[in-house]
């Protein structure tokens, strides 16, 4: 799947393929989790474990709207298109060991950089609960490309992720500020401006 899900986020999914209907039924009956690997460059290497929280809607054709919660990041060790006697794919994974080494000053710098980017873009920046804030909280809120999100997912260290985010925010803010200045110049050139005549009393021809 060409989507990156980060630990802690809510994952809404529409289930319509028969094999995944079976998967959701198994997860519901056995309280199991399942993995969503990221499909990139024709490979499956990393992904996120998710847990079924709720089946919101079930339609006449058996398709479903479900809500899941993303949990841990994993690396794919083996992959099978059909897992045992099940129609859905499966395999073995290894969960990444995460390092919670966040630095308060670095965290504050990231938050301030995000506020500045939103200010430059004239967007509201909602309140952040600092007691639950982490790098993944902002992952989908700052314009990272798909590949950048995938790179972020693989970083085990919170400090490493925060530095990555801070660099992106600072670079993006520079670009946005330059664009805003360009826009202001374009808008200014489209309006009448004051014409200050020359003071001919002090003007002399050589």
State the helical fraction.
25-40%
Please mark out the parts with pLDDT under 50 across 5 or more consecutive residues, or reply none.
none
Oligomeric state of the chains in view: single chain
Q: Into which percentage range does the β-strand content fall?
A: 15-25%
CATH architecture of the largest domain: Roll
Structural class: alpha+beta
Shape: elongated
Order of helices and strands: EHEEEEHHH
Mean pLDDT: 88
Q: The biggest beta sheet, please? A: 5 strands, antiparallel
Overall CATH class of the largest domain: Mainly Beta
CATH topology of the largest domain: Archaeosine Trna-guanine Transglycosylase, Chain: A, domain 4
Distance, first to last CA: 75 Å
The Cα radius of gyration reads: 25 Å
Q: In total, how many beta strands?
A: 5
- The CATH homologous superfamily of the largest domain corresponds to LON domain-like
Number of domains: 2
